[in-house]
Amino acid sequence: MRYAFIDAEKATESNPGGHSVTLMCKVLGVSRSGYYAYLAARPAAEERARQEDELAAEIRQIHTGSRRAYGVPRITAALRRKGRRINRKRVERLMRERGIRGITRRKRRSLTRPDKKAAVSPDLIGRDFTAAEPGTRLVSDITYLPTLAGWWYLATVIDLATREVIGYAMADHHRAELVVDALKMAAGRGALEEGCITHSDRGSEYTSREYRTLIKELGLRQSMGRTGSCYDNAAAESFFGLLKAEIGTTVWESHEAARADVFRFIEVEYNRTRLRKHPVYGYVTPVETRTLTTQDLAPAA
């Protein structure tokens, strides 16, 4: 700061009323050599500052594009995918200095209302939310979205091998046909294997005759967690927490507005652009995970 003050107050043609560099160095208790070293290093410092500003702007752009949801790990991964050779600690420092923060998810209330008379299927997942191949293990759940027109319900089906939402349905109710429609979409686009496990909670929608008939027709195996245990269906619960945190809307104006936001989040953002750390492929999107997994599983020519 003292060197900057000397540089601003020194006598020059444009500042004839300024002071002698020698005098100011003596008064401020610094050396003339230190001042001239500061001048020599200033262009490099200014270039570093310019580069930091450019990087910070790029970080902010990625952060905004993620609905301000991405934290340090995903922003670092996004920068590397764009060709940046970047250190995570540098990203963390810049985000901290510029006040850029990811979203913290809020807890959600469960919709599970079990039918006490319905038979319960065994838990074939056992809190192991992984799968070696797409179309072999699925998780399903229902959540609600508040709108000025009343509750809006969303049912999803997620492939555990890719974490892609392969099936979903929305309606102003959460009767059995909601989860049936979501599973039909999953069967139509998810290339489900014979004997694929479809896991859910014990809600009456999932123990309904309509849903179980569809499971039988598709050749799937039903699995259920325990009542009141969110950990038994944690992968599905996690997605809903993510959706509500990243969309950011508290109350929608209408069912149509909620539908449009959810559709865009699932089809445009989550499945195709949101990065998730995969144990083999690194930070990739769910659709990329499906492609990479399929390629790895394809028999050699």
UniProtKB/TrEMBL annotation:
Lineage: Bacteria, Bacillati, Actinomycetota, Actinomycetes, Kitasatosporales
Integrase catalytic domain: residues covered: 130-294
Top-rank lineage group of the source organism: Bacteria
Task of the protein: Involved in the transposition of the insertion sequence.
Name recorded for this polypeptide: IS3 family transposase
UniProt xrefs under SUPFAM superfamilies: Ribonuclease H-like
